[in-house]
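Bug: token stream looks shifted between consecutive jobs. Job 1:
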Amino acid sequence: MTEQTSDPISIRIDEDLAHLSSTISKPHIFRVPARLRLENEQAYEPEIVAIGPYHHGLIHEVFCSSFAEMVPPRVPERNGGNPELEFIKCTTELRDAGIKFKILTESTSLLDIKFENGVLKIPPFIVDDNTESIFRNLIAYEQYLPSIYCRYVTDYMIFMDRLVNSAKDAAKLRKYGIIDNWLGDDEVVSIMFNRIANKICINSTMFCYWKVFKNVNKYCGKHRNIWLAKLRRNYFNSPWSIISFLAAFTLLILTFIQTGFSIVS
């Protein structure tokens, strides 16, 4: 008679596996592509070896499952049949174009990025010593997925790489609460995002954030939004400047009223 295990960890793993269907149906051992490994070999060196079904895509499934439910079933939204993506600008340039940034706390997924009414809403992202290694390995796993599947983590890192081009961009996102920098140096965070996204193959027809890119670029293309952003930044960047403007405007109105009464009388 086969003795059934009562180990709570094994039971929990079995329950997780029962609810998740791995993208690849058979067990595989993947070799990290050389182009990715050369960027940071240490990030791919295993510190723990697990034998059994636990690593059969489970980590990737758990990480992406909640976001996958937000993507239309079977065929994700496509970018109008055009394989070329129009990438967005960095945080500093988007801010200059009138885009506002807001931390998205109500989402259940780190990957859930929204753009509504000129506001780019991004869930908080913790950057620590393990971040690069974790995301590099998830991306390496996605590089072997068939082209009909979305590469959620890859697309997310491409998105963040576009936002963070410099330490200044990282500092702004940290100020907004979007990046929680445990490394202490904004320059290190910027370099990390740029290195992770380097030499990654993008499936442009299945890119998860194509619609966000499209709407952001459309918003930035309106001269009115750019003009209003410059107006707020140059003339209404503090409470005192707003008070001064209101005082001057009130004085101007009173002057017109006084002039009108003088003409009538």
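Job 2, same session, no restart:
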Amino acid sequence: MASEKRFATRLRSFLTPVSADVRSRRLRGGGKSLVLSVLAAGFACVATGCKDGPMYALKHANPYFTMRQWADDEKIGITDHQRREELQSLAESMPSLTPDRQQYWSSHLQQIFENDESPEMRRLAVLAAGKSSDASVLKLIEQGLSDDVIKVRMEACRALGNRTEDEAARLLASTIGSSQDKDVRHAAIAALAQHPGQIAADSLRLALQDRDPATQSLVIGSLRRSTGKDFGNDPETWIAALEGKQVDEKPSGGLGSFF
């Protein structure tokens, strides 16, 4: 496909993030006001915990700068924006690739994940891996669960939801039990909805012990999809049913199915 060919052509540039020298030339080309803007945005990122660098804050503060700077950057070499755009395109086309082509890209996605400093590039590498049927990418996705950046960890959970292996369900169950970040735990809970079977049922049953109503509601929604059953909205009722006790299901289309 065209997107795969473009990605292959630019692979060397993708595996080599934009150098500090190129970044320096881009900043000098923009003049003193541009440098001051970048520095100001950088301080804003430090204050707010931004993980994607000063350019992220700057493009939101001044969208015109983003478009103008991309045009200037392309004269020097491949831009961060182009790298992200091409990897996004590869991720979207991954399901349509033949098994041997998916396997071919697995090692390259691994290199991007291990070597790229951009959290967004690592997230996109995990996204692409999650859309591949190649079993070897499970290692990459598992590494994503330990990434320093939350959006990468959440993407890894979503990617595991797309996998059919029991190991994917086990990794999600482990994340639910060990993650200290609620957003990551919720992403793992939501992903387990796509995994029927005992691993998902046992993990979600334990997650129902969380007293947070939002978490309980999410768990029950995942249980409905995972088990194909509906025991209403009461966590204790679900726990009883999952433990094998006699519990009546809600009629199809009843109020319980709306929550």
